[in-house]
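Table S5 (text form). Sequence records supplied for joint modeling of the two-component complex.
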Amino acid sequence: MLPVFGGEKMSRLVVENLTKIFSLGFFSRRHIEAVKNISFKIEGREIVSLVGESGSGKTTTAKMILRLFPPTSGKILFEGKDIWKDLKDQESIRDFRRKVHAVFQDPFASYNPFYPVERTLWQAVNLLEKKLSNKKEALELIKESLVRVGIDPKDILGKYPHQISGGQKQRIMIARCWILKPLLIVADEPTSMIDASCRGGIIQLLEELREVEGTSIIFITHDLGLAYYVSDNIFVMKDGEIVERGHPDKVVLEPTHEYSKLLVESIPKLYRKLEGL
Amino acid sequence: MLLKVENAKAYYKLEKVSVKAVDGVSFEIFEDEVVGVVGESGSGKTTLSNLVSMNILKPLTLVEGKILLKINGEFKEISSMSREEVKKKLWGKEVTIVPQSAMNALMPTIRMAKYVEHLAHSHDLAEEKLLAKAEKRFEEVGLDPLWLKRYPFELSGGMKQRAVIAIATILNPKLLIVDEPTSALDVVNQRVFLKVLMQLKRMGIVRSIIFITHDIATVRQIADRMIVMYAGKIVEISSMEEILRKPLHPYTRGLLNSVLTPEPEIRKRGISVIPGAPPNLISPPHGCRFHPRCPHVMDICKEKDPPLEEVEEGRRVACFLYSEERR
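The corresponding structure-token record, covering 604 residues in total, follows.
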């Protein structure tokens, strides 16, 4: 049964007037407004991108959605529940962790070098709501998830992080998503450290997860080319505000804000030459 | 023609093994052109740039082949010069290389002008004269000459990169090699930097430019020709427009199809994936090095190494799909 709000279908994620102010210094406090009063919605099976340069507040927004630090003001509703107010006990937080998953930029930093890589998959299995009866069953699940992301389980089981490539590491992070089947994935620059020829594979895997499981995905990226290609909706951020939003064709082909105009204009393109070089 | 590289092989000779980073490449650079060298990490791009500028330090060894450069209207074999000779006669005047992340190698406690003084010393030139020249060059790249008296940490990334290029070109080198110069810059500064490069070339300060990068969309903006490298070999050389219109080598095609730029053509085209990963260069695969990942692999590809052959005027490809040898 779908939860219903005033007769309307509820959005998977609603961000309302979200603001984050960091305070610095002890005697003379300085305040930095990293995110300023932003609002957006994400539906089920939707891919959106938060695009902006470093310091635009996109990662801060992602961290608040992931419940890593609290907003100064504003609300984040996931499945109708305010993730900072309505999740009161450990169990509901665990449930949130099952349903919202992160894939980060640096696949090298997501693994502990002292443990075999599949440890991160065992951790995912332990997070599952339905406890598995035995280890064999869990191993089957892990193997299945690896096959899903195009890795032969024989190639990585028992190996340590330094023995596998960056592309493989990022694939294993997505294998985790196949075990947990989250409702929302927050992917922070998931392809920026991977070679060009492997990048497409990672994007395709995330798209496949959306097709099969109906997962919603937020891409956090500075790469407007990537955002334009994968998204249903793009939000362009600048100095903590969303300055342009809409369908990729609208944002890229007919930008209205000065910043997005400059951004689209400056990005080198394959089939057009920049003017005035 | 300005530079000619003939069958160059450069290996990193380690104790027990050799890493075949550049393995039998031949190409030439003409006068007054910009050539882009593209490929993934580990394809030998940077080793190639070190080779062309004769910056060969152990364990890198030139195993075979020749590098010829036109100096005062005559072709000289620079690959047989001693390191002393290279430093005195070649660097700065004939060939200059701006290595990857050069701008981050600037010592934060040394003023920019000091680098110019160092240059004057190493080439036995008068300091004042060269400093005056540097001031002019700074203006030409869009920097206030006052920045010469500043410390590197006071400059922004984009300014640092322009300062580096200004100092690197003070002696008007004929051939300028830049290795991933725009990777650390944001798109607005990238554009400014490309403009500066083209301006240096238009003013005749440098004759030809080799631009090494993994970013095809960036190099596409200024390059006349493109060299595509894979696992230490050149797989395709062609004019930029032709290669974009119709890439011939399956690797080039895969590489182009993995580029994502905000353009309607890209959304229509979709994204493709080259399966597998680049090979280990200690023991690369037999035959064509791309064959384990190639969608068009034939029997001959597993046995023989395809030579780089001209298939159309100005287009060379190393692939049996276009070769006479294909049965």
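Note: The CA atoms of residues 16 and 39 of chain A lie 4 Å apart.
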